[in-house]
């Protein structure tokens, strides 16, 4: 299983097309950086959290493996007369220990493009490597990579949680994935209304665990008999396990449990835990 799967958008209208589809400012994308962005429904609910980078005449969109084909189909519906092509491109994608770009504490989103590979850095000392395979001892397993982006405050959306939350509930405003000055995109009206006129009452949150527990995206958290939030993802590394979830504000810091698990979890807002 790949960490991320990739859509590659080409054609002379590629920037203008994606500018009207994604929540971040695609015009600001350069060959030496990468972005996070949300791809939303017309109601502003997040269909995919996208890792976005550019290489010459191509723009690459990375996302969870289980949603990439549905996102490709949906994007193609909006091509109309735009001169773009949207291709699903399967390439090796793995996590590696930081290879000296920035450093473990450097959270700047940098991309380093080689002749047959690209390195995306900026997530808690673990980088995403796309391209030719590295030596086995350099690769990190998927659970450790997931722990790294959870600890970095990056949300993930899978098929079980797609089209469920506005970007702010996923902390994408804190993760730098939203632009409020770029102009219109799909779902922008509801996202902007929440930003300017309201306040989110659901938050991206993380909890540390003592052991690897059986948890899947979409699992429900409970406070006694009361539903208490939805799991987005789970990771584990040498520091232990970490659960990523969306919780109502009133349940942040309260004891929560997963069905069938006796461990009590205490969540913090993701951007406060870093």
Q: What's the topology here?
A:
Blueprint: E1 5-10, H1 14-19, E2 34-40, E3 46-55, E4 58-63, H2 68-77, E5 85-89, E6 93-97, E7 110-113, E8 117-123, E9 126-131, E10 139-140, H3 142-151, H4 188-197, E11 202-209, E12 220-223, E13 226-237, E14 240-248, E15 255-258, E16 265-266, E17 268-269, H5 270-273
Task: Give your account of this protein's structure.
By secondary structure, this protein is α+β, with helices and mostly antiparallel strands. It is 15% helix and 36% strand. It contains five helices and 17 strands. It has helices at 14-19, 68-77, 142-151, 188-197, 270-273; strands spanning 5-10, 34-40, 46-55, 58-63, 85-89, 93-97, 110-113, 117-123, 126-131, 139-140, 202-209, 220-223, 226-237, 240-248, 255-258, 265-266, 268-269. Strands 16-15-12-13-14-11-17 form a seven-stranded antiparallel sheet. A hairpin with a 5-residue loop joins strand 2 and strand 3 (46-55). It starts with a strand and ends with a helix. The model is unreliable at 100-104 (pLDDT under 50).
List keywords for this structure.
single chain, about 35% strand, seven-stranded antiparallel sheet, alpha+beta, about 270 residues, five-stranded antiparallel sheet
Structure at a glance:
Helices cover 15% and strands 36% of the residues. With 274 residues, the chain is of the alpha+beta class. A hairpin with a 5-residue loop joins strand 2 (34-40) and strand 3 (46-55).
Give helix % range. Answer: 10-25%
Strand content range = 35-45%
Mean pLDDT: 88
| Poorly predicted sequence stretches spanning 5 or more consecutive residues | 100-104
Rg over alpha carbons: 18 Å
Structural class: alpha+beta
Output the helix-strand order: EHEEEHEEEEEEHHEEEEEEEH
Number of helices: 5
Taken from the alpha-carbon principal axes, the silhouette is globular
Q: Looking across the biggest beta sheet, what order are the strands in? A: 16-15-12-13-14-11-17
Tell me the distance between the termini. Answer: 28 Å
Largest sheet: 7 strands, antiparallel
């Amino acid at each position: 299983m790949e960490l991320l799967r990739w859509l590659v958008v080409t054609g002379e209208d590629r920037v203008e097309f994606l500018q009207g589809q994604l929540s971040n400012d695609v015009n600001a994308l350069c060959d030496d950086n990468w972005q996070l962005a949300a791809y939303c429904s017309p109601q502003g609910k997040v269909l995919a959290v996208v890792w976005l980078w550019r290489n010459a005449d191509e723009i690459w969109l990375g996302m969870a493996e289980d949603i990439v084909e549905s996102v490709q189909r949906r994007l193609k519906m909006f091509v109309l007369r735009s001169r773009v092509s949207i291709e699903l491109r399967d390439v090796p994608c793995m996590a590696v220990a930081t290879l000296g770009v920035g450093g473990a504490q450097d959270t700047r989103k940098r991309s380093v493009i080689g002749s047959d590979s690209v390195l995306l850095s900026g997530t808690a000392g673990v980088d995403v490597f796309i391209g030719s395979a590295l030596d086995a001892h350099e690769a990190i397993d998927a659970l450790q990579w997931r722990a790294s982006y959870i600890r970095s405050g990056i949300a993930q959306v899978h098929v079980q949680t797609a089209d469920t939350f506005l970007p702010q509930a996923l902390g994408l405003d804190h993760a730098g994935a939203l632009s409020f000055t770029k102009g219109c995109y799909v779902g922008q009206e509801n996202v902007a209304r929440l930003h300017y006129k309201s306040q989110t009452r659901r938050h991206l949150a993380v909890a540390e665990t003592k052991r690897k527990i059986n948890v899947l995206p979409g699992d429900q958290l409970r406070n006694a008999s009361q539903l208490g939030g939805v799991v987005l993802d789970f990771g584990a590394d040498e520091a232990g396990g970490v659960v990523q979830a969306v919780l109502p504000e009133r349940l942040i810091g309260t004891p929560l449990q997963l069905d069938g698990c006796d461990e009590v979890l205490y969540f913090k807002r993701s951007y406060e835990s870093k």
